Amino acid sequence: MKFDVLFQSFTKTSNALTKMENLSSLPTNTLVDMLATHTANYLKLTDEIGKEEEYAKTVLSIKALQAEIDARKRTAENTSTTDPNIIIQ
User: Fold this and answer.
1) What is the extent of the structural domain holding 53?
2) What is the number of domains present in the chain?
């Protein structure tokens, strides 16, 4: 994939991504389902030629979903281990 084509696709895709629904408002199970769908699409696109824009969009979507899921995971881990009222027996 040529760099200039990928860069153009990335620019168009990043603009589209800013219009993407706010992921923080979605339930985690929906995020995981979306991640699975985008991952399947990503795997399909790796074998196709001429789909650079769709490929770039899929990669950005996967990264956004992973970031949101990771943020929730970190928040859950910090919440469960920093509460001073929790007694571990």
Assistant:
1) 23-71
2) 1
